[in-house]
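Workshop exercise sheet. Pairs work together: one partner reads the sequence aloud, the other fills in the structure field after running the prediction. Swap roles for the next sheet.
Pair: D.N. / O.F.
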Amino acid sequence: MDIYLRIKELAKKKKITYKEFAEALNVTEIQVTNYLNGRSKIIADHIPVFAKILEVSIEDLFRQNGSDKSRLKSFDVTKSKDDTYYCPECIKKEKRLKELEAIIKDKQKIINQCEELLAIYRDEKRECC
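Structure field:
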């Protein structure tokens, strides 16, 4: 069972409306409808919100109907230290962002060194003349 079907099933049992989901997720009811009909993928950041509204654990959203066997491992989502879930694409983007930040930091060090050397060169030149 896909997660959207599980959320839809739990929402029906708990009589939670799409409007309630929309308000909590800060999206339109149409977007919630698209999520729960499988027309749009559910954003990983929305999964904890669905769990909270449905009063279930995130892991319960990934369980098959009444089954103790969790499908969390089969759904490509990673749990971080702060209990936030990320999809593989988000993890790749985050990794690339960190790589780019490191490159910028290295380039800034080089620029600072060049500025220091230029200042020294200018000072030395003035002393000679």
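Discussion prompt: The helical segments are 3-14, 18-25, 29-36, 47-54, 58-61, 88-128. What would you look at next?
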